[in-house]
Amino acid sequence: MDTTPLGTELPDGTRFIGLEDGWEPNWAAGDAPTQADLNACVACGLCLPHCPTYRLTGEESASPRGRITAMRAVQEGRATTDETFAEFMDLCLVCRACEDVCPSHVPFGRMMEAARTQIEPLRSRRALFVRWLGLDVILPSKTLTRVAGALAPLARPFLPRRVRSLIPRGARVAGRLPRVTVPDGGIRGTVALLSGCVQDLWFRRVNVASIRVLAKNGWRVVVPTDQTCCGALAAHNGHLGTARKLARKNAVAFAGVDHVVVNAAGCGAHMANYGDLVEGADLPVRDVTAFLHEEGLRVDAGSLPEHTIVAYHDACHALRAQRIHRQPRELLGAIGNLELVEIPNGDRCCGAAGIYNVTEPEMSGRLMREKTEAIVSTGAAVVASANPGCTMQLLAGLGERGVAVDVVHPIELIDAATR
Ligand code: SF4
Ligand code: SF4
Questions:
Q1: What does pLDDT average to in each consecutive run of 10 residues of the chain (419 residues)?
Q2: Ligand 2 and 108: CB distance under 6 A
Q3: What's CA 80's distance to the chain center, in Å?
Q4: CB 91 less than 6 A from any atom of ligand 2
Q5: Residue of the CA atom closest to atom 5 of ligand 2
C-alpha cells in the first residue's frame, strides 16, 4: 500500500490524494476530454432546452454547449483549469440529457468525467480528504461501506441537514444475499446480479425482490462475492483512477457470465461503458426491468392487493443513458389493481445525481422541489424509482413537503404482485 501523505506535491505539480495500486494518483493519468470528442460538437444548441442547469439559470456557461466551449478553450491552451472552469464543470449533473438529444452524438458524459479529473487538484485540502475517504476508500470496500452505514444513524445529528435528510431511516439490513438461487422448474439460463454498495446497504429489499422475480421467471441467479462498487460515483467526480480499478475488479468478478443484471440505473449506465474506461473490460450489462421485458415473463403479472396509483419516475441514467422508457411501464401496466400515471415533465432530472445533492445543494434542491411538486400533482400513492440515488432524493423531497407518498423500485411492485 502506498503511504504518500495526502496533498503531497507530485513531480507534475499536482497533489496526491488517492491510495492507488502502483502509486497512481487519481487525476495524474493525464485524463482530459479528447480532441475527437470536443470536435464532435458543432455548437448547434439543440441540447440547451433539455439541460436542467441551463433551464434554471439561462446562462450559456451552465449549458452543455458552454461547458464544451470551456473544455475546448482549456484543451487549446486559451484558458486554464481555474476556479471559474471548476464552477462550470461542478454545476453539471452529468444527467446526460444533452447526450440523449444531441444530433452529433457528442459523448458528453465521458467528456465531463475527464474534465472533472482536471479540476480535482483545485479543491481544498478538506474537500480532497473527504472525497478520497468516500470515493477511494469507503465505497470500494464492502466492509467499510457496511461500517459507514452502521455509523450513519449515530452520526445523523452531526451531519448537515441536507445530508441527514438523504439517509433513509431504518432501511439498513444485516446479513448477506444468497450466493446462488436456483429456480423451481426449468432453468432458462444464469444471470449474475450486481448487488451494489448503496443499493445493498440501504435498499437490500430491492436486491431480494430482484432475485425472487428473476428466479420465479426461470433464471438461476448468482451474486459473485468478489464484486465491488461499480465505480460510477468515482468516475463522475474526477476519480477516474479509482473507477478504472473498480472496473477491472468487476470485469474479473463477472467474467464469463451470460448477463450481468443491474437494478440501479446509475450503476447500469456506468457499467455498460466499462470498455471506454478499461480496454477489454466490457460486460454484458442488462437493466433488470429491460431484461425481464425483453426476455419475457414466465409467470402471470399478478395483481396488487388493492387499487394503487403508481407514478413511474424516469431516472436520467435509465431514460437518457440507457434509453429505457417503455419496458418498465409495460411491465407495471400489466399488473392488476395498479394504475400507472405519468409525472408531468417526467424526463426532467430530480437533482440527485450521485453526490450532487450534497455538493450543489441549491441547484439540487430546486430540481428536487420541482419534481416533488410534479409527483404530488399526479395523486399517486407510490412512486416507482429504479435508481437508489433518485429514491433517496425523492424520499427527502416528499418528506420535506410532508406528503405520504411511498417510493419503491419497480421490481418490488412486480414482486409484490406475484407473491
Ligand atoms: S452537444 Fe450536441 S446538441 Fe449540444 S451544441 Fe453540441 S452538437 Fe449541438
Ligand atoms: S449532463 Fe445534464 S446538466 Fe450536464 S450539461 Fe448535459 S444536460 Fe446539462
A1: 46 46 47 95 97 97 96 94 95 97 96 96 93 94 90 80 72 80 93 94 94 97 96 96 95 94 98 94 97 96 97 97 97 98 97 94 97 98 97 95 96 96
A2: yes
A3: 29
A4: no
A5: 64
